[in-house]
Specification:
The chain is an alpha/beta fold and about 500 residues long. The chain contains 16 helices and 15 strands. The chain has a domain of about 300 residues.
Length: about 500
């Protein structure tokens, strides 16, 4: 894999957007509509296709990762491309309603040149689906949190993955709202053009008002490549959009306002969104993401053709992100999965960097990654016209607070052995004090030996219960059979007294 900077800053939700000036550049080519559709799919709208060109030189691919991800197998390709064209911004026609049925109209155009990162399998192993991730800029630099969660499933199932630098701060830089102990090491707030000018100095972003159409145009490029095809010999049948945290909030606005106009994506994995949608933005600046935290509750519109699967952690539904007021029933095209024992950012995302955060409790080590991987597999089937994902049980909430058992473990939600056969209390609730990053990182609190002795008469009894719970989560559809061994490997029989 290409050179990848390590930092944790890009994995947490920002409290404010970036703000800085922008440049201009060349426009894209004429429109085209060549697509590879499954029967019954809504045909994507006509529109401009940007021009792609390989990015080389400098220090190599610059993309933040803190948690470990598996190396790409032999035959896989990792490459990076500039993507240049002319994008459209949008304005609201009337008030944006809480039911998500946005009516948007074009507001202006501007030239852009951003970048995409591509990781793709050999043609013989490609399953026909491309996961297009809206890269996260919450910590002032581009990060791919969903790739970190999804990589094992992407690789073993043969998905292609494309990360899109859709937002202003990732390209041109700007203020960093959430600082971490490693922010400066990662170059947070500088933007690609300043971190590595030899590779990225010619890029420019006209502001987050154009990010929605940039994301559309990248999808159109993947369906209708020009002289340079970022997917090489691969011909996608399905494009799935994915985004976590701030990117999920941006995708909420995209789904409600842009997807009905463009029909570019075949399904959406919206991971850890807040209760509000992102603003439409202004030219020449990043969005004010605080509006995605404090704006009016906004649901996903219910008249979509493309399916939407939302995955929410304990940190997201009650608390800072406050998704609860926007919570909505499942429909034939919408599912919401709330995952017990999880936090907005966790040990799987942070890896060894978690110890540098200085949180008063160890960060959450919950099962979010397992459930997100299952969500992707279900969404892919659903987008192809197959069975919808199972309905997920919701968190137990009373008086605006979570209901917890005597050990402090949340009631309700999607269950796994890590919460139902516990040796730790995994929670979205952080320890006292700490930074905003700690607030979003939840906690892992060991159960006392005396309590473990009460719960489990022997290590073999613990292992039997843990295995039964694992198989129940798989049978329910919330953990993949391919992840059974990895889930069982997290059992800790040595913690059981006796």
């Amino acid at each position: 894999m290409g050179w990848t900077r390590w930092a944790a800053a890009g994995l947490v939700l920002a409290a404010a957007g970036a703000a800085a000036a922008c440049g201009s550049g060349s426009a894209g080519p004429a429109t085209t509509t060549g697509v590879h559709l499954i029967a019954g799919r809504v045909t994507p709208a006509r529109g401009p296709v940007p021009v792609a060109a390989p990015l080389t030189g400098g220090n190599g691919i610059d993309l933040v990762s803190a948690g470990s991800v598996p190396a790409l197998p032999a035959g896989w390709v990792e490459a990076e491309y500039s993507v240049a064209g002319t994008a459209t911004s949008y304005r609201a026609v009337g008030t944006l309603p809480s039911d998500g049925r946005f009516h948007l109209a074009p507001a202006g155009t501007a030239s852009y040149e951003t970048r995409i990162v591509v990781r793709r399998p050999p043609e013989s192993k490609f399953n026909g689906t491309v996961v297009v991730e809206w890269l996260n800029v919450s910590g002032g630099l581009d990060a791919a949190p969903d790739y970190t969660y999804l990589a094992p499933e992407l690789i073993r199932a043969g998905y292609a993955w494309v990360g899109v630098s859709a937002q202003y701060i990732g390209v041109d830089g700007g203020p960093v709202a959430v600082q971490t102990p490693v922010s400066n090491l990662g170059g947070a707030g500088k933007g690609l053009v300043h971190v590595d000018p030899a590779r990225y100095g010619h890029l420019h972003h006209p502001g987050d008002a154009f990010s929605y159409d940039i994301f559309t145009q990248v999808g159109r490029l993947l369906r209708n490549p020009g002289a340079v095809d970022p997917l090489g010999p691969l011909h996608p049948k399905v494009l799935l959009a994915a985004g976590e945290s701030q990117s999920a909030i941006m995708l909420t606005t995209y789904v409600d306002g842009v997807q009905p106009l463009e029909h570019m994506y075949d399904g959406f994995l919206i991971h850890s969104r807040s209760g509000s949608a992102a603003p439409l933005g202004s030219p020449g600046t990043g969005i004010d993401i605080t509006q995605g935290l404090t704006g009016p509750p906004t649901r996903i519109r219910t008249d979509l053709h493309a399916p939407v699967l939302m995955v929410e952690t304990e940190s997201d539904v009650v608390g800072l992100l406050d998704y609860l007021p926007a919570s909505q029933p499942d429909t034939s095209r919408i599912r919401t999965w709330e995952v017990a024992g999880t936090a907005h950012v966790d040990l799987a995302q942070l890896g060894a960097v978690a110890t540098l955060f200085g949180c008063s409790e160890p960060v959450n080590a919950g099962p979010d990654a397992f459930v997100v991987r299952s969500a992707l597999a279900h969404l892919d089937t659903w987008a192809r016209g197959g069975a919808a994902p199972p309905h997920g049980p919701r968190f137990a909430i009373a008086g605006g607070k979570y209901v917890r058992n005597s050990d402090g473990i949340i009631e309700g939600g999607i269950r796994t052995p890590l919460v139902d056969v516990p040796v730790d209390v995994l929670s979205g609730q952080p320890g006292p004090g700490g930074s905003v990053a700690c607030l979003l990182a939840g906690s892992t609190t060991p159960l006392p030996a005396s309590r473990l002795a009460q719960l489990y008469p022997s290590r073999s009894a613990y292992l039997a219960a843990y295995t039964t719970s694992t198989d129940a989560a798989i049978a329910a559809g919330f953990v993949l059979p391919a992840d059974r061994a990895a889930m069982l490997a997290l059992a800790q029989p040595d913690r059981i007294p006796g």
